[in-house]
UniProtKB/TrEMBL annotation:
Protein's UniProt keywords contain tRNA processing: yes
Native source species: Triangularia setosa
Domain Metallo-beta-lactamase, first and last residues per copy: 673-891
Catalysed reaction, written as an equation: Endonucleolytic cleavage of RNA, removing extra 3' nucleotides from tRNA precursor, generating 3' termini of tRNAs. A 3'-hydroxy group is left at the tRNA terminus and a 5'-phosphoryl group is left at the trailer molecule
Name the UniProt record assigns to this protein: ribonuclease Z
Length: 1087
């Protein structure tokens, strides 16, 4: 006998069917397409897909129970609703139905405002089934979306505003990679689901996965993304890059026709330039399909190359981008060719006499040795990488703005008017669909006679004027005088650049005053406060500052509003403008400002043990005996005031608590050096030093080292070098990287000047033509042509000695050792790699080692597979190197705050056996973002490690306790289902007892016995409640809270139950018949 433990979890399938077993497959298939509305709560039945007609008229509805019987059979149950429910039930059902029907909602929401963490502002247009992103997709955008839990899985259209450079597109490549991985994960899950259903012989349900991504932007969008072809690659992701280079309004007769249109929105693009003559004529209208195919219109060439037309150059860029995401290239595919035609850097294989494929280790092309005349096998590079160079380009002088409007909504159907016109109900659907019908008396009824007027679609505009010389062209746009187009625009978002704020221009202020009904939202660096946009990592830093203020200084931020403006409202993250079903601004979802005082109060109240440990550490480092011991142990270490500031300590992609790889080292008297430069490194510097302080650091910057060409190690270089170029005028910068990175800099320099004429190219080259791991590289320096010999000698003396070796990670992955000749200070940095003996030899005697430790010791298999190091392996390299100070960094994103210590993990016994024994005078620290430690303070910082670990462990325990509390709540809800059954059984017995008593009284009355009758008890009251949406969040549908928990009730209606009970009904399944013992009152019977 099966017992239904919790009826509240039953979900309705085809709701208009009584017995699906008696219907044909065609009838079943058609019934499944119906999507009826559902009430929120009826008794203990929650959110069932029950049509309103069935609830009011009464019926029996079959639906599957989301569970299994002990025999593994799928259960089905029946919902019996009386034909004539009481007026109270009818009223309650009607109220619940009307309050729970939610039309599709849409709104525009500010995602980011200009801050150090998020230098660009962008706006998200939300629909239930799709998302659109408008604005400057700058570095840090993706990390901010992760911080605020904004899902990007439904993001398929991105509209870039402003002039295309790294300030508007710097976050786009990383966001594209993440979206591609999301789609790939969804496809893999779908493939597993299909395979599982095929194995069970079940029918495969057709379900498409939206895998397309459309990106729209101005001139140089294609070129910018094509430059990244050497280090961005994903397969099978349909990507459409649409560079808008023409003004479609110039010859457009009807401005109501949009440039982009789908089933939800319409978008008009508004290109503006520095002069009216810069606007180029184009087609009358470009629809969605035209934008996806790209623009092949001929126009004035912007390149110096006389050999290629602009259309041909664009075709090359399109091919490069297509090869980055839409190719079918496979790593396992080998191609045969002659040895002398092989690229010297390629990995070469050959087929042995036994037919096995083996690696070729003989002489290679390009080394001057005689080559055997043999055929070999090589991997073909992915298609995009085959394009050696891109056509030249120049910085764009155009900006792009947008007008966005939702589609008009159909007016309501007037049933009363249709009834007066004698329209049969069967023809209502035709009228709603826009068809005219003829009534029985011959009257022609048109939709306008029975439909209310359409509701105009609401919308907004995104305005980005990065330069003053573009204002005239902007004000001359014909769209502003088109009342039809501007009707329905509720808000204008005004984005600004660092050099110009349009909303402070008198001409723009007058323009804004012409539209008093439109809300003007200002999103500029000069008005939006430099708030802590990434609140969780900032909160962690504040707590660590309370423990160790020397190593964790407070970040630079300002929550105060900046210079006021005459017109408009200052935008804030989370601010919404509702478009449908209700219109108007909403402040309900504003992101609150982080107050450090509240964080400190929480520390004092919740982490007393941590504070006691921190106090003990402070006493220890203030002890003269300890200080004397430290001074004695490190008297042979030079430059003890050398500062190490980790700016990014995570791997792969930016996460909530860790940015991607970057470490700044400042050597007094010898300048500053940056080891790797992941996305938004400039923002991390500005958050640590402030805007002016960052410029001072850039003036002191002497070299940037890029360990390898993975995007998470160098995507912040363009913005940092562009800022360095503006902040400095006569200094030179060394860029230490493989030749492929320098080629990327040269190609991108056409989009935005990086100051390459003042860059010293320091390039490692393979010895013997092939970059083999563990081997040392030949380092060559190339100085700018403008320097004479004396100046070259001067610049060479300003840089340390550079030694580089190849490591096992990816093609051309390197590790480095820098030695400063004046003091002998030696710094070694591993980049990403497996443990390297060559690197240990290269860095022999290093005073400071920065080594990656992506995985804990228990995940050595993952480290081997992904070519990374574990904690113990990194420490072993430091031991073999004889490093005096070791800073571990580059942690997997599975460790959001602190990795597992040595010997802890899935294989703790094996790891403990391999525990690394270090010398007594060796100090080891974990790196954190925005940590600040001097080379001579490692010993002091070590004393605070227990307190920091305790803090982070306590926070993890609090999170786990919250999760367990949610799970216990679910368990309590399941237990409540058993209690509900017991209560129903008690009510049944009580009703039977009352019935017998009444029968006994009637019998006594018939026999003339004058006995005082016991009055029957009042019917029990059953409340029909509607659960608030926030109460349902995170819980199973229909679940109730455990006993003792208070549940707020929004509405309730009393429903009197007669006290009678229904008999158990048979529940049919596909494989047999089961019975469910569920007793409910007659008014709403669940069996």
């Amino acid at each position: 006998m099966n017992r239904l433990r919790q009826p509240s979890r039953l979900k309705i399938a085809p709701p208009l069917l009584k017995n699906p077993s008696k219907l044909s497959r065609a009838q079943l298939a058609s019934s499944r397409t119906r999507k009826p509305r559902f009430p929120a709560l009826i008794g203990i039945i929650t959110r069932h897909h029950i049509p309103k007609r069935l609830l009011l008229d009464g019926s029996s509805v079959w639906f599957p129970y989301a569970g299994r019987s002990p025999k593994g059979r799928t259960l089905r149950a029946v919902l019996n609703i009386p034909r004539q429910p009481s007026p109270t039930i009818r009223s309650a059902i009607t109220n619940i139905y009307e309050n729970s029907t939610r039309p599709m909602s849409s709104w525009a929401q500010v995602v980011t405002t200009p801050t150090a963490d998020t230098p660009g502002a962008c706006v998200l247009l939300h629909f239930d089934q799709r998302r659109y992103l408008f604005g400057r997709i700058a570095e840090g955008t993706q990390r901010a979306m992760v911080q605020r839990k904004i899902a990007i899985a439904k993001l398929h259209n991105i509209f870039v505003t402003g002039t295309v450079d790294w300030s508007t597109t710097g976050g786009l490549p990383g966001l594209m990679l993440t979206l591609a991985d999301v789609v790939a994960g969804a496809k893999a899950a779908r493939a597993e689901e299909v395979a599982a259903r095929e194995a069970k012989g079940l029918k495969i349900k057709d379900r498409d996965i939206d895998d397309d991504l459309h990106i729209y932007g101005g001139r140089n969008l294609l070129h910018t993304l094509a430059t990244t072809r050497r280090f961005i690659f994903r397969k099978g992701i349909p990507l459409s890059l649409n560079e808008i280079r023409t003004d479609s309004s110039c010859q457009r007769n009807d401005r109501a026709l949009p440039d982009f249109e789908d089933d939800l929105v319409r978008v008009w693009h508004l290109p503006i330039s520095s002069s009216p003559s810069a606007s180029r004529p184009g087609s009358r209208k470009r629809k969605h399909s035209d934008l996806e195919e790209g623009n092949d219109e001929t126009e004035t060439p912007i390149m110096d190359d006389a050999e290629l037309s602009d259309a041909e150059a664009q075709h090359i860029r399109q091919a490069a981008v297509a090869g980055m995401f839409s190719s079918t290239w496979s790593l396992d595919t080998l191609h045969e060719m002659n040895l002398r035609d092989v690229d010297p850097t390629a990995k070469i294989f050959f087929r042995s006499d036994s037919g096995m494929i083996e690696e070729y280790k003989g002489p290679r092309p390009g080394i001057g040795k005689e080559l055997p005349d043999i055929r070999v096998l090589i991997r073909s590079p992915w298609p995009a990488a085959k394009i050696e160079t891109l056509p030249d380009t120049k910085p764009s002088k155009e900006s792009l703005c947008y007008i966005v409007k939702c589609h008009p909504r159909r007016g309501k159907f007037k049933a009363d008017a249709a009834a007066k016109l004698n329209v049969p109900k069967t023809d209502f659907r035709k009228l709603v669909a826009g068809e005219s019908i003829t009534s029985a008396n011959g009257t022609v009824v048109t939709p306008e006679m029975v439909m209310e007027a359409d509701v105009e679609g609401r919308g907004f505009a995104v305005i980005d004027i990065p330069a003053e010389e573009m204002v005239v062209n902007f004000l001359a746009r014909p769209e502003w005088s088109d009342s039809t187009l501007m009707s329905g625009v509720d808000v204008m978002y005004w984005l600004s650049s660092e050099r110009f704020s349009a909303y402070r221009d008198e001409r723009i202020v007058e323009f804004m005053k012409k539209y008093p009904s439109i809300q003007h939202v200002l999103l500029g660096q000069d008005v939006c406060p430099n708030r802590l946009a990434l609140q969780d990592p900032a909160d962690k830093t504040i707590k660590m500052n309370f423990i160790d203020p020397e190593r964790f200084p407070l970040l630079k931020f300002d929550n105060r509003p900046l210079a006021p403006v005459d017109t408009g409202n200052i935008g804030a993250p989370g601010a919404r403008v509702n478009l449908h079903p209700k219109q108007g601004p909403s402040s309900e979802f504003l992101v609150p400002l982080l107050d450090p005082a509240n964080t400190i109060k929480g520390m004092v109240g919740d982490h007393r043990a941590v504070l006691e440990m921190a106090n003990e550490a402070r006493k220890k480092i203030a002890d003269p005996a300890f200080l004397a011991e430290v001074q004695e142990s490190q008297k042979d270490i030079p430059d003890l005031d050398t500062e190490i500031i980790p700016l990014g300590t995570g791997s792969a992609l930016p996460s909530k608590y860790r940015n991607v790889s970057a470490t700044l080292i400042r050597v007094p008297g010898h300048g500053s050096y940056l080891f790797d430069c992941g996305e938004n490194t400039l923002g991390q510097l500005r958050r640590f030093y402030g805007l002016e302080g960052t410029d001072e650091v850039l003036k002191d910057l002497r070299a940037i080292y890029i360990s390898h060409l993975h995007a998470d190690h160098h995507f912040g270089t363009a913005s940092l070098m562009a800022r360095w170029n503006k902040a400095t005028t006569d200094s030179y910068l060394g860029v230490i990287a493989v030749d492929g990175f320098h080629r990327w800099l040269r190609e991108y320099d056409g989009v935005e000047p990086l100051g390459l004429d003042r860059v010293i190219r320091i390039v490692p080259y393979p010895t013997g033509g092939w970059a083999r791991a563990e081997q040392a590289a030949t380092v060559a320096s190339q100085y700018p042509e403008t320097l004479n010999e004396k100046e070259i000698e001067l610049q060479a003396s300003r840089l340390p000695k550079v030694e580089i070796c190849w490591v096992d990670h990816c093609l051309f992955a390197t590790a480095i050792a820098m030695t400063f000749p004046h003091s002998g200070l030696k710094i070694a940095y591993s980049g990403d790699c497996r443990p390297s003996k060559g690197f240990a030899t290269l860095g022999k005697g290093a005073h400071l080692l920065l080594h990656e430790c992506t995985f804990e010791d228990g995940l050595r298999g993952d480290a081997v597979a992904k070519k990374h190091s574990t904690i113990s392996e990194a420490l072993a390299v430091g031991r073999d190197m004889g490093a005096r100070r070791i800073l571990l960094t580059h942690f997997s994103q599975r460790y959001p705050k602190l990795p597992a210590p040595i010997g802890i993990g899935a294989e703790s016994e094996e790891s403990s056996a391999d525990k690394v024994e270090l010398k007594k005078d060796t100090s080891v620290l974990y790196a954190f973002d925005h940590m600040h430690v001097k080379l001579g303070e490692f010993k002091q910082a070590e004393q605070f490690i227990p307190a920091i670990k305790k803090l982070l462990e306590d926070e993890e325990k609090l999170k786990e306790a919250e999760k367990e509390g949610e799970e216990e709540e679910v368990v309590g809800e399941e237990a409540l289902g058993d209690k509900a059954q017991k209560k129903a059984e008690q009510q049944r017995k009580k009703a039977e007892k009352q019935k017998k008593k009444m029968e006994h009284n009637k019998a006594a009355q018939k026999h003339g016995e004058k006995k005082k009758r016991t009055p029957a008890k009042e019917p029990e009251v059953v409340k029909v409640e509607e659960v608030k949406p926030q109460e349902r969040a995170g819980k199973p549908e229909g679940a109730e809270k455990p006993e003792g928990a208070e549940t707020p009730v929004e509405k309730s209606a009393e429903v009197k139950s007669s006290g009678a009970v229904g008999k158990p009904e048979e529940v049919k399944t596909q494989e047999g018949v089961e019975k469910l013992e569920v007793k409910e009152p007659e008014d709403v019977v669940m069996t």
